[in-house]
Amino acid sequence: MEHTPPDLGCWLRLSMTHGVGRDAARRLLGAFNDPANIFSQTAAQLCQVVSAAQAQALLQAPQGLDDLLQDTLTWLHASPDPQVSRAVITLGDALYPAALLDTPDPPLMLYALGQTQALKDFQHERAVAMVGSRNPTPQGLINAREFAHSLTAQGLVVVSGMALGVDGAAHEGALQGAAPGALATIAWVGTGLDRVYPKQHRELAHRIAQQGLILSEYALGTPPLAHHFPQRNRLISGMSQATLVVEAALLSGSLITAKQALEQGRDVMAIPGSIHSPQSKGCHALIKQGAKLVESAQDVLEELQLPSQAIAPSPDQATLDWNDPDPAMSDEDTPLLEALGHDPVSLDALQARCGWPTAQLQAQLLELELMGQVGRLPGGLFQRIGSG
Predict the structure, then answer these.
(1) pTM for the whole thing?
(2) Nearest CA to 216 among 195, 240, 241, 200?
């Protein structure tokens, strides 16, 4: 199923006109009601709303408009999966998310792939943005999956950006935790929807379209330009009641999302981590500035003033517990886990703590890695995983 707005060509022309940004386009729509009326005005009439240069640009059809219109219509009608719909959604459309209209810079057009009709009933009060490092620690990946799994099991929607690292783990956890038929997750991307970026997430994108939504404000054919990703962050936070930062360095795009969330009047939360981990510095800075420190999904629900639902896990979910250590590898059986503690530690420092020969220590660490209880970090460091 596809959803095509009337006057699609006029909407594309407005969005493509050189020198006319989103703010000017919204002013024009406010003055002339719809794009078709804009292009029927004289230069003098347009100059009452925009500059003379912008008015002149509006009087000429942009190069490539016909090709983009044809490509967009082809894409809209070319869904190979009847369970996955495609839509182009414009300002004023019934499917346009109301939460974005309350933000300072709503897009003119949205491209949607997946469960598009779910936008009719979408409530941003029950959506949480989850963002974080593209190079997280093993514990950061587990936290992202675990929190997303728990939140969607409580009927919330997880919103993220489908980047490598925390974003991808959040989408994965959301897909695993959501009830059948529920909107699990929304991925805001920085490219056109006719391509998947990063390529490693092609299979993940397919599953998100089956159980959630992929959204973009960028026209088909748009490549992954660096400046698009900070721009799309305002949409991740704007479509959510709260933004949860899982892991972030001090100079991180996740902190941009958190800043935009605050500017939009949304809640900001952060998961603390090791004082020695660079990926925790951004979260700690946010907490110092007043972000809510959260240690569990229940903390998120309480901050949003949402009741916790007692939901029985599905057979698949019943076996999924990110915190439980392997029963064959408990703390009592493994002094090495106690020696590791919960902060990153080097092999030399660990050897000094336990006094084991290097070969024995490396063998035990490898065994714990294979069991998913220890993660190997950059710089030759090791870190215990889970709450153990």
Answers:
(1) 0.83
(2) 195
340 and 288 in a common domain: no
Does any domain span residue 255?
A: yes
CATH number for the domain harbouring residue 267: 3.40.50.450
**Is there a domain that residue 223 lies in?**
yes
Judge if 259 and 375 occupy the same domain: no
Query: Burial of 315 by CB count in 10 Å (0-12 exposed, 13-18 middle, 19+ buried)?
Result: exposed
Do residues 239 and 201 touch, judged by C-beta distance below 8 A? no
| 343/9 Cα distance (integer angstroms) | 56
- Asked whether residue 68 is domain-assigned, the answer is no
Q: How far is CA 262 from the centre of its chain?
A: 17
DSSP letter string over 125-138?
A: GGEEEEE--SS--H
Sheet holding 157-160, edge to edge: 2-3, 85-90, 109-114, 213-216, 185-188, 157-160, 127-131, 242-245, 267-270, 292-293
Sheet hosting strand 374-377, strand order edge to edge: 345-346, 381-384, 374-377
Estimate the crossing angle of helix 278-288 against helix 253-263, to 10 degrees.
20
pLDDT in tens, 321-365: 333 433 333 444 478 887 787 778 788 878 888 888 887 787 788
Per residue in 162-183, pLDDT tens?
999 999 999 999 999 999 999 9
Domain that holds residue 176: 117-318
Statement to judge: residues 200 and 303 lie in one domain: yes
Same domain as 273, residue 340: no
pLDDT tens, 58-89? 999 999 999 999 999 999 998 778 889 999 99
- CA distances, 176 to each of 165, 179, 203, 319 (Å): 17, 9, 15, 12
